């Protein structure tokens, strides 16, 4: 979509397969010369061998020949040569939205993205004629005893993607990666009011029309749905939602922040500067990103300590309510379910669950995190995240698809409102509040997570992933943005702030202007 108007991201165009019946070929040298001149780049490797094999009655000489090339071949009037029309995908926007689209290979099979996930709907059905044929498979009769199945065109699907938001997200991501000395990252934009995806950007990218030029198959993967990772402190927002909704803590509660907390035999410390040895509010936990604060919230779920009751409660919210560890079902090939350990699985569970409160010890995808975050700030409704908004009729009209509701009780509405206010105040009072336009409600949370070193199997001292998630821009948010920067070489230790956060800031302010959101404060 371009605003409310559908624009084509994928088109079909006619192409032709050039074939021969060698038994009918009379001037093979002329055919070789003509085809090399007209369709040289489309010839199959063995075309000349097949052409001269008189035992064959059918052999393919060239594939993916354009209509203009086909017309030139027809004019040559080559005995024994035929043309078979087919269809191929064209991507007029080049690299735009490449990962969510995927591509169609030379055999007509959808690979990755929507092309693979919805191939049956997009491809339609081939027609069939069952009848008597000659040795060349040409029908001799078409009578009452023939069996005919008409061909069926595939659906023309309308994506929820907004072309302008997608393009701007890709542009800001590319620029942001350069600034943070990174090569890989992702941006996801959703509408929390219905679960529709407005943009899904990944870098590095590729051109679906030139997929054969890609040497690293990892480039085809849509990291937003296929790459689970430890999200880091952005998960603190959801931990606080769980603690509030379960009644373990109250919106106006405080706790004594000492800067450190013991869980069994492990010591958990705060990373960022925080008000040590003072009464911290529940909003302070998000503003200062207090690890001790979310562990305190977990303790309250257990009646005062991290125990089985606390683990069961947190798991209920993370797994049952937020749906971590489950595929969302978005229309994408290769979606991952992620990993969350159950409250009774394995050992060291109290420490693991304490770490989970600030986004470590479990792997989830961006689409899972953003969907849960959307539900937590929209009043408590978990919408099915989706990329298909409807179908395009033959008259150009769009038949919209109603959004599906997965659950309507993720958080109670009043708790969702409290959490949204905490996230808003946490940003407003924190480092990033100065970047927001006056009069708008923009909330967000940073996250910086360590990366496992493949050689040592331990957390790297240098490498980390920066994440930012937030919403805007009124009391009824119309967008959720999640940004991930994988491999910043700045090594600040605060990549959520230094690498991912600035991309969110720029995109959020642009969204306010683009969507023409009016200030409410």
> If helices are DSSP runs of H or I spanning 4 or more residues, what is the number of helices?
16
Number of domains: 2
Mean pLDDT figure? 90
Relative helix content: 25-40%
What is the CATH C level class of the largest domain, in words? Answer: Alpha Beta
Cα separation of the termini: 31 Å
The CATH superfamily of the largest domain appears as DD-peptidase/beta-lactamase superfamily
* CATH topology title of the largest domain: Beta-lactamase
Beta-strand proportion: 15-25%
Taking the sheet with the most strands, its summary is:
5 strands, antiparallel
User: What's the CATH architecture name of the largest domain?
Assistant: 3-Layer(aba) Sandwich
Q: Catalogue the unreliable spans.
A: 126-145
Write up what this structure looks like.
- This protein is of the alpha+beta class and 521 residues long.
- The chain has two domains: 11-88, Penicillin-binding protein 2a (Domain 2) (Alpha-Beta Complex), CATH 3.90.1310.10; 163-514, DD-peptidase/beta-lactamase superfamily (Beta-lactamase, 3-Layer(aba) Sandwich).
- Helices cover 31% and strands 22% of the residues.
Give the topology, please.
Blueprint: E1 11-20, H1 28-39, H2 47-51, E2 59-65, H3 67-76, E3 81-90, H4 98-101, E4 103-104, E5 110-111, H5 113-117, H6 119-123, E6 128-130, E7 147-149, E8 157-159, H7 163-179, E9 185-191, E10 196-203, H8 223-226, H9 236-245, E11 254-257, E12 260-263, E13 266-269, E14 278-281, H10 282-287, H11 291-301, H12 308-321, H13 349-356, H14 366-377, E15 382-383, E16 388-392, E17 398-400, E18 405-407, H15 413-428, E19 443-452, E20 459-472, E21 479-485, H16 495-514
